[in-house]
Amino acid sequence: MRTHSAKILRAGFGDSSKAEETAKFLGGLSARELHFLHYDWELWARDDQLPPGAASDGTPWTTPWTTWLMLGGRGAGKTRAGAEWVRSFACAPRPRWQAPPRIALVGETFSDARAVMVEGVSGLLSVHPPSERPVFEASKRLLTWPNGAKAQLFSAEDPEALRGPQFDAAWADELAKWRNPEATWDMLQFGLRLGERPRQIVTTTPRPVPLIKALLADPKCAVSRVATAANAANLAPRFLDAIVGKYRGTRLGRQELEAEILEDRADALWPRAMLEGLRVAEAPDLRRVVVAVDPPVTSGERADACGIVAAGTSASGEGYVLADRSAQGLSPAGWARAAIAAYHAFEADCIVAEVNQGGELVASVLRQVDADVPVRPVRASRGKWLRAEPVAALYEQGRIFHVGSLPALEDEMSDFGPEGLSGGRSPDRVDALVWALTALMLTGRPEPRVRGL
């Protein structure tokens, strides 16, 4: 019944054309069957909300993990996943001779543990059917299930409280926000010593804290990543429009909505915090606009990307980075078409093209696509870092702004140090950015060309 029900329900809720079939199916069920479906988590859960190794049909776990780290955006459904995992553990059938399980619930504070993990909309009290629902004794910070299973609440503010108790399982919520993460985590691990296979789930919005990094590197840690958008059907439309729309693509949005872990290099020329402070919704009227191209030496999927960045300057001399049109795997004709498309889209004055590798061939390829496009060749006589430093200084002076979100470009900028990018990759987007802003703000500034004359 579960498989058949899942197909009908998911089809109906995902496709309005099948809503009538879904309504007819539900209308033919008894009250008992509806009650069963309501609390059947495997039926409603997305695959990313199920334990690693479990299929959507409820197949038992097969992945040998000890910790399940669920990195989720705001409203992505990670609290529900944590509560349902605890429910499945507490209510699972066990031999009579086996003692009921003991579970640790660790929140940022006791207040958070109670308000979110226990009494919240997606908390433990709400996900159980009445016959399985545990009794919560707030004064004892204890939940007790009808079958004798118990869960005790703990606060990350008091790691020592975890010294002594022992558990079969644990749920750690918002670990990236814990005040004493390492000490609390260590005490929790010492307490996970009951049963044949102690396990734990961590539900958190990601931050680049050492403990999260350590878990990501742990081979016994299974990782799930889920963005806010995955749970859009259960979120208020206003939240999606006002919050998701506002922060999409920004550093905060990528962390809080996309569940990405974003870091800065200590020696990076462009810290992310600085870039966030220089973001604007739109540019003013611009006096000059250029499209800079950093062409790759080779083509194909494994070749370096072709950096293509559009930027302009206002009458007051401020710079605005308008777009990152960089692309990978393009042939020379392909990247030339992409650069010229950006030239026309932003009504640029010229294309600034680095010619160190291709010489006159670069300008020739561009003119084969559009002979009327003015091309200004530039040649690098210094290293990438030295060329980038004067441009970074303009950012530090608050003279350059990013229009909207430019995530791929900003990732490169925040990872660009004296030795280049981490892992030895080529900073193609950064190169194009530097060429564009150098041409606009650090060299002679001819009057803008009147297009069409």
Characterise this structure.
- The protein is an alpha/beta fold and 453 residues long.
- It has three domains: 1-38, no CATH class; 49-234, 3-Layer(aba) Sandwich (Rossmann fold), CATH 3.40.50.300; 272-441, Nucleotidyltransferase, domain 5.
- It is built from 17 helices and 15 strands.
- The strands form two sheets. Strands 3-4-5-2-6-7-1-8 form an eight-stranded mixed beta sheet, with helices on both faces. A seven-stranded mixed beta sheet has the order 9-15-12-11-10-13-14.
- It is elongated and about 80 Å long.
- 36% of the residues are buried.
- Mean pLDDT is 83; it is low at 55-61 and 445-453.
User: How much is the radius of gyration in Å?
Assistant: 28 Å
Query: What is the CATH class of the largest domain?
Result: Alpha Beta
Q: For the largest beta sheet, what order do the strands appear in spatially?
A: 3-4-5-2-6-7-1-8
Query: Which structural class do the helices and strands define?
Result: alpha/beta
State the assembly state of the protein chains: single chain
